[in-house]
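Hey, weird one. I pasted the ATP-dependent protease ClpP protease subunit sequence into the form twice and got a warning about non-standard characters only the second time. First submission, copied straight from the form history:
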Amino acid sequence: MYQMNEELNPNAESPETAPDRAIADELKKKNMLQTLQSLGQTNVPQLESNIFCLQIIGQIEGHMVMSPQNKTTKYEHVIPQIVAAEQNPKIEGVVLILNTVGGDVEAGLAIAEMIATMSKPTVSIVLGGGHSIGVPIAVSTCTSFIAETATMTIHPVRLTGLVIGVPQTFEYLERMQDRVIHFISSHSKVTEEKLRDLMFRTGELARDIGTNVVAKDAVEMGLIDRLGGISSALQELDRLIQEKKGEYLQ
C-alpha cells in the first residue's frame, strides 16, 4: 500500500521519516523558546528579499584606523557590498540607512559616487543624523528621506595631522570643499550658493562654523527630497523598481 502511495505522491512522507520530522519540529520550538528566554526576542524569519539594505553607521573610517571605542563604518567593507548588490540579479533595489557623524572626506565621497552610479533604484533614510560627509552620501540615492527627528550638520572641510605647506594646504582644502559642494548640489535641489552660506555661517555652532539643519528645513531647502521613515522609503523604492521594470518591458 505504501509503495502505491509513494508512486502516486512522490512527496509523501514515509512512516520511517515521520518521527524524525516530529523530533526536528520539537527541537525548533525548543530553540525558539530558549532564544526568547535568553535574549527576550524570537528569531526573525529569513525571507528572500529583492532589496539590499546598506548601513552607514557611526564614523566613516578612511585611510586611518579609528580608535576601538569608536563605532565606525569602514569604506573598504562598504564598497564591495555595493559592487555585489549591483552585480546580483536577484537584488532589484538598495535602501541606504544613515546615522553617521561623518568622517573621512575621500572615503565618504567614494561611497557616495559608488551609490550614485548604480544602475539599480536606490533610496536613503537619514535617521538620527547625517552629518558632515554623511550629507553627500544621503543625497547620492535616487530619492532621499529624512526622519522628523533627524538633523544634518553642514560645515567646512577640516584637516588633522602635520601641515607642511600652508598656502598649498589651503588650496587643496578649497578644491576638496568645491568637490563636496558640487556633488551635493548636483544630486539635490539645493544651490551651491545656499550650501556655501550654510557651510560658512557663524554663530550657530558653539565650537565650529557651519549650520545644523533640522529635518523640515532640509526638505524645504531641497537638500533632502521628503520627510518619512522606513515604510515611505520602501514604498518609493518599490515604485522605482516597478518603473524600471516598465522601461525594460517597453
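That's the output from the first submission. The warning seems to come from a hidden character in my clipboard, not from the data itself. The longest helix spans residues 18-39.
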